[in-house]
Design goal:
With 355 residues, the chain is α/β, with parallel strands linked by helices. The chain is built from 15 helices and ten strands. α14 links the parallel β9 and β10. The radius of gyration is 20 Å and the shape is globular.
Length: 355
């Protein structure tokens, strides 16, 4: 991400008036290796290949803001690996996690964690240190520190099925696990900030497991912990929340947690999301990421993109960043990304001519 792109993203996040709507895509390891025709294992373990891959993506799509920018990640391995979850690597897919907290009460036996030294967190931080001078030499910035959220991390450590059951059957013990995961998330974000330095002005939290619970459980088991994370960082930072599961239970409360940008899935129409939180959050979405963005024709992508833009953009252009409904899905082809951009250019040109 170039500095001027970050400034554009910040203005949108702060609901400032803009003549044109920007476009941003969440790009990471589920999409990049397949798009470039390389092995996931090589992408994760070859620093030079990782660097050149991200450089190529930025050069190929210069008018699209890539979020969170030069993402150094091992799938979803870093956060659960800090707490001892078993991680499996695959040649042609992202890593998978297997829970190792077999009984909830065994949390008392967990050793103290150290994000600077534990598992894939430590590797990620070291890789950032290695790559950062070259990234800066290209004139690029990494403005976000990124983490999976507390429920997501807890689900990887305990298993999502057990977590859902124990929210109901063992609420007190579940709170202890989520509290631990929240501390891990905050410390992990701060460790990234320490390495990346003053260029960081935002946090990016991904937690789809929040979409598996009802509103009552969200207010008890998710909202206070998400708010703790947001409160741990400066008020003027951009705070981006991603959840491409169902957001109905949490939607009205996310601004109060401290988030000012929402990237959500295809389940909730942008018109409803705009009506419910559009004056309190910037909406980053939400072209259907699979049936349209991956499987659709460019013409279908353009049509869907215009529908999203018309449904989510107010008269003054505030509070809208065009994206897909979630991360860029594996298999999304170049022509469909360019189709989204063409539709946006047409939409922006029409708006400018009317001003």
């Amino acid at each position: 991400m170039r500095p001027e792109q970050w400034e554009t993203f910040k203005r949108a996040a702060r609901l400032e008036k803009q003549d044109t709507v920007p476009m941003a895509m969440i790009v990471d390891s589920p999409w990049i290796p397949g798009y470039l025709g390389i092995k996931h294992m090589d992408y994760y373990l070859d620093p030079e290949l990782w660097f050149e891959s991200n450089k190529k993506i930025n050069e190929e799509f210069p008018d699209i803001i890539m979020v969170p920018s030069w993402w150094m990640e091992y799938g979803m391995a870093a956060e659960p690996s800090i707490l001892g979850a078993k991680i499996k690597f695959w040649e042609d897919n992202t890593p998978s996690e297997y829970h190792t907290l077999y009984r909830l009460e065994d949390i008392d036996e967990f050793p103290e964690y150290e994000v600077d030294a534990d598992a894939f967190a430590a590797m990620t931080l070291h890789r950032y240190k290695m790559a950062l001078p070259r990234i800066k030499a290209l004139g690029e910035v990494i403005p976000f520190v990124t983490a999976r959220g507390p429920l997501c991390t807890a689900g990887f450590v305990r298993s999502t099925t057990h977590l859902m059951i124990e929210i109901v059957e063992k609420p007190e013990e579940t709170h202890r696990l989520i509290d631990l995961c929240t501390r891990v998330v905050i410390d992990w974000l701060k460790a990234q900030h320490k390495v990346l330095g003053d260029q960081v002005e935002g946090i990016f939290i991904l937690d789809d497991i929040v979409g598996f619970i009802n509103e009552e459980h969200y207010m008890e088991f998710a909202h206070p912990y998400l708010k703790r994370i947001c409160d741990a960082f400066p008020d003027d930072w951009v705070k981006l929340y991603h959840n491409d599961a169902e957001v109905d239970a949490c939607l009205d409360h996310l601004p109060d947690a401290g988030f000012n940008v929402l990237n959500w899935g295809k389940q909730k129409d942008i018109v409803e999301v705009k009506e419910r939180v559009g004056d309190r959050m910037c909406l980053m979405g939400n072209v259907n990421p699979l049936e349209i963005a991956v499987r659709g024709t460019p013409e279908e992508v353009e049509e869907a993109t215009l529908e999203v833009l018309e449904g989510g953009t107010g008269k003054d252009g505030r509070g809208m960043i065009l994206s897909v409904g979630g991360g860029t899905s594996p298999g999304m082809p170049r022509e469909n990304i360019l189709a989204m951009r063409r539709a946006l250019d047409h939409f922006n040109a029409s708006r400018v001519s009317m001003l």
